[in-house]
Design goal:
Helix content of chain A: 25-40%
Largest interface: A-B, 63 and 62 residues
CATH superfamily of the largest domain in chain A: NAD(P)-binding Rossmann-like Domain
Structural class of chain A: alpha/beta
Number of strands of chain A: 14
Distance between the termini of chain A: 15 Å
CATH class of the largest domain in chain A: Alpha Beta
Oligomer: homodimer
Largest sheet of chain A: 6 strands, parallel
CATH topology of the largest domain in chain A: Rossmann fold
Radius of gyration of chain A: 20 Å
Strand order of the largest sheet of chain A: 2-1-3-4-5-14
Strand content of chain A: 25-35%
Number of helices of chain A: 11
Order of helices and strands of chain A: EHEHHEHEHEHEHHHEEEEEEEHEH
Number of domains of chain A: 2
Chain lengths: 344, 344
């Protein structure tokens, strides 16, 4: 059996990280890469040795290469990745996309979701959106844990992470370094966005459990620091904003059934906040899970993406979400064996 | 759309618990019950009101009732449930079985597994073994968590529970109340068994990740108490055995890749042992998950079983394991809606 053949579309931090990990795996190979930097060797982008794979900005040309799956890592939004997905699907290629909104595109782009599902079926391929969050921590993991419950009354979960390693774009999007007034204005104007993915996670959970929600509410509050915090990209004096506490509520008849929190800040430990992924389920039985420290966002997204490749290749055709597929598993052997076994 | 129709086969603690929870759910109903107590109303066994469903000891008769799925809760061992599964499958019925060995029958009964898979395909039905452990805590949950890892070097997990609520059969099987010498003899003779399910969990994890193991080793050590512990069924003096510390190792080339611990004892808190489900993954990244207290075994098994019903009905035909199906989710709405959605 031939290697599984992957085309990478987008070689930013995530796309190139996925590429690097893929090169260490057995039974799978990168056969093409779509990138703005036209004509350079993929190895130059990944920081590995020469690969002989030349990046091209012309997507159509790269999509002519015989392949099994395209990994799209170009944007956070369904509208922006839709044309890429369309091109790939029409070439008969399976797709994994890490755009946050694609983790559950029915949440915010139901018409595009319908379109992608139809296209995927017509071309007998599978399209999956995934990532560490949305896609895993605040949705798939929660859903899995409810599997041990005979009844669920309420779900609360939190992902507490540390933004310190990130660059200026992330700092800006979370309002790190702003004054409380600037933060408020930034949220109103939409320049401070907090986490992208809450409607996706909440819809995925609700649909998995069969809860019909009336509304999803989101709040974004400044995390005002009492101590001086600093990273290479930002200095935050006491009284200023160290991050964004973004919370989302899924409600039915005025009652909160799902509450997801994602406070994102630099150096949370400086005020005694322990990073981690937390899930509390009220029901029968109660569930009280903590993963400390949190699964790191970058590696986590790269890993989930790679680990879902065999599941996506084996899946029925259509647009699917993480709740519809077998759980991801770290692929430690030959990718081809896993697919063969599932064919059984 | 009609209700989903369930036949219960076996109405012990687990089977009748599943029955009770099912009666509270929407879009699903029990249509028959196979039980030694011939002729009594199912409600009498479940302790609910009259149901009009009469338990019958003649399986063939009950399996004539039009149904979608049979839930088999009669024994822990594949060999013992095999004839029940065979009868059900040949009647064109899907099966969920909570026999521990059925969580991954390829581990200890590969020939029967092969047979069941063939039968299920020939009759276009799905057979699944599940339960809280094996089936969820020390396998599916671990596999799911590795999904966030780009590399896994070693897996360690523990399920620390409290046997205090259980009756004399469980106490005997775990050696509670024996002397250290009696415990040793009991393990040698096979009367003290510890946990049933380690080979199943280890094989499921290894197959999910693509690890080829050379051997599985199991050890059973007495948990000798330093304090007096007592339940309605057993009294344990200091120096005597309060439970069984059962550990299993999955090894490759002499190196342990998977270590699963399941110390089962009465009143673990009396010596400062906190009950819980714990998963530690060494890899990239490391994962460190704790669920405190542990998911209770009884409700957990009932819940997972019920929650897998829509997944099993929707699945491709054959013998499957939890790693092959979408994750369980607590079914809080109408069972029929969940199946309809998956049909999409």
């Amino acid at each position: 059996m031939e290697n599984i053949r992957v085309i990478l579309w987008g070689l930013g931090a995530m796309g190139s990280g996925i590429g690097k990990y893929l090169m260490e795996k057995e039974g799978i190979e990168i056969v093409g890469a779509i990138e703005l930097k036209d004509g350079i060797d993929l190895g130059e982008v990944l920081g590995t040795g020469k690969t002989g794979i030349i990046c091209k900005s012309n997507a159509h040309e790269v999509l002519e290469i015989p392949a099994d799956i395209v990994i799209i890592a170009t944007s956070s939004f369904t509208r922006e990745v839709f044309p890429h997905i369309e091109k790939s699907v029409k070439r008969g290629l399976n797709v994994i996309c890490i755009a946050e909104e694609m983790a559950y595109p029915w949440a915010q782009e139901p018409e595009l979701a319908e379109k992608m599902d139809r296209m995927a079926r017509e071309n007998s391929v599978t399209v999956l959106g995934t990532g560490i969050n949305p896609g895993f921590v605040l949705d798939l993991l929660i859903i899995t844990l409810t599997g041990a419950c005979a009844r669920v009354d309420k779900i609360k979960a939190a992902r507490v992470n540390d933004l310190s390693p990130f660059g200026p774009t992330v700092m800006k999007g979370q309002g790190v370094g702003t004054s409380p007034e600037e933060f408020k204005k930034g949220v109103e104007e939409g320049s401070i966005v907090g986490h992208v993915g809450f409607p996706e996670s909440i819809h995925m959970i609700a649909d998995a459990l069969g809860w019909e929600l009336d509304e999803i509410e989101e709040t974004r509050e400044p995390i005002i620091t009492n101590v001086y915090r600093e990273t290479p990209h930002v200095k935050v004096e006491p009284g200023m904003v160290a991050g964004c506490k973004h919370i989302a509520f899924g409600k039915k008849a005025g009652k909160t059934l799902i509450a997801l929190e994602h406070p994102q800040q630099i150096h949370p430990h400086m005020e005694g906040q322990e990073t981690g992924d937390y899930v509390w389920i009220e029901g029968e039985p109660n569930i009280n899970v903590a993963n400390k420290p949190e699964v790191p966002g970058g590696i986590g997204t790269m890993a989930v993406t790679i680990n879902m490749i065999p599941k996506v290749i084996e899946a029925k055709s259509g647009l699917l979400s993480m709740k519809d597929l077998p759980v991801p598993a770290a692929v430690m052997g030959d990718f081809r064996n896993l697919i063969k076994k599932q064919e059984g």
